[in-house]
Amino acid sequence: MTDDGTVAGDALRGDVAVIGDGPAGSALAAALRRHGIDAVLVGPDEPWTATYTTWADDVDGLDLLAGADVWAHRFGRITVRFGRTHEVERPYGVFDNELLRRHLRSGVRHVTATIDDASVVGARLVVDATGWPSKISGPTGSASGEEPAWQTAIGIVLPAPPPGALGVPTMMDFSDPGATIVGRATVPTFAYSLPVAGGWLVEETVLSASPPVDPEALLPVLAARLDTSVGELIDAAVSIERVRIPMGAQPPGRSESGPVRYGASAGMIHPATGYSIASALSGADRVATAIADQIARTDPTEPIDPAPIRRAVWPDPLRRSRHLHDYGHDVLTGLDRNGIQRFFDAFFDLPVDTWSPYMRIDTQPRRLAAVMVRMFAVAPWSLRGRLMTGDLRRFSRLLRP
C-alpha cells in the first residue's frame, strides 16, 4: 500500500484476486494456494469479532483444516430446549478466530486494502467475498424478490456461566423467556449459551424476521430470561456482541456478470439456521478445483471464464436444495413459539444421521427431500398443514426426487 492509501497495481495482479478477507475469502484463498494457483487475498485485515460455531463433524474431514487446531471449545454433545430438553449427541464446536485466521492465511499472499471497485484489480479472475450486501457487486435478493428477512441477536459475554439451565452449552433454548420484544410481541426468540474465548456468551436471537428486529430491542428479553435487569446485565458484561445475518439472501443469477461471488456475497447462508462458516470452508476446495481447471484450459494472457466458476459455487443440484431450504425457512417463520417448539421437538427426536443433512447447504436435493418427507411423517397433525404452507402441489413438487 502506498502512502496515500492506494494499492500498487502489481500487488493486485495474478491469476485470481479474492476481495474480502473474512473467513469465506480466507478459506478460498487457502484452497487456491493448496492448488498452486497464483492468488492474492485483499481486505482490510480487521479482527474477526463474531462468534463462529458449527457442527464439528461437518468440517473435521476437510483437507483445508487437516492437522490444524482451530477450536476454542469443542463439545461431544449440546443441549437444545423447546417443549422438551434434548441432549444432542453430535459434536459441536466454537472456532478460535485467531487460530483459524492464522491457519487459513498461512502462505497466502495478502494485501491490506479496502476495494470497492473490482475494475481496479488486474487479476485474470476476481472473486467477491465481501459479505452481504456485497461491497462491490451489490446485494442479491430474496426468493420473493424482496429484501431478505434478518436473523438478529444481542449477545452478552459474562465472566462465568450463568446460573440455571443456560449454564451448560446450549444451541437453542426456545422456552418462554418471560418477556417479549417491545412492539414485536409475536416474534419468538431463543437463547444461545456457550463458552467463548473471553468468557461465557449468552445470546438472545430472533431466528428470522422482516422487518428486522434491532438487536438492542432484545436486551430486555435476555435480561428477563436471566432473571436480572438490563442495567445489571450490561454492568456484568465482559463484552457485547450484536448479530445481523441476512436469511434467504439468494444465490446470484446464472447469467450474472461481474466478479464471481463467494460466501455470504453469494448467498451461502443457510436460510433456515443462519449458519455459514462451514459452508464457506467446505465449498472452498470445490470452487478452487473449478478455478484450477479453467486456468489449465485458458491461455495465460487471457481472462479466466467466470461462468464455470459460478456453476461451481452453486451447482444446479444445490440450487434445487436451496429451494427446499427456502421452503423450510418460510415454514419456520410462520410458526409461533408453540409451533416452533412442536416442530423442533419432532425434528430432534429423529436420529442424528437422519436430520443432520438438513443443516448443510451442500446436501444433495434427493437426500434433503428425504429428510423433509420423514419430518412430515413424524410431525404432529397440528403441524402438518403448516408444513405444506397451504399448497399441497408446491410441497409435493419440491419433494420429488
Task: Spell out the blueprint of helices and strands.
Elements: E1 16-19, H1 23-34, E2 39-43, E3 53-55, E4 71-75, E5 78-81, E6 85-88, E7 92-95, H2 97-105, E8 109-112, E9 125-128, E10 149-158, E11 170-173, E12 190-196, E13 199-209, H3 219-225, H4 230-236, E14 239-247, E15 260-261, H5 277-297, H6 307-313, H7 316-333, H8 337-349, H9 352-355, H10 365-378, H11 381-387, H12 392-399
Parallel strand pairs: 1-2, 1-9, 2-8, 5-11, 9-15
Antiparallel strand pairs: 3-7, 4-7, 5-6, 10-13, 10-14, 11-12, 12-13
State the CATH architecture of the largest domain: 3-Layer(bba) Sandwich
Looking at CATH, which topology of the largest domain would you report? Answer: FAD/NAD(P)-binding domain
Question: How many whole angstroms does the radius of gyration measure?
Answer: 21 Å
CATH class of the largest domain: Alpha Beta
Element string (H = helix, E = strand): EHEEEEEEHEEEEEEHHEEHHHHHHHH
CATH homologous superfamily designation of the largest domain:
FAD/NAD(P)-binding domain
Largest sheet: 7 strands, mixed
- Percent range for β-strand residues: 15-25%
What structural class do you assign from the helix and strand content?
alpha/beta
- Determine the mean pLDDT: 91
Q: For the terminal residues, how far apart are their CA atoms?
A: 52 Å
Percent helix, as a range, is: 25-40%
Number of helices: 12
Domain count: 3
Shape: globular
Count of beta strands: 15
- List the uncertain runs: 1-6
Strands of the widest sheet, in order across it, are 6-5-11-12-13-10-14
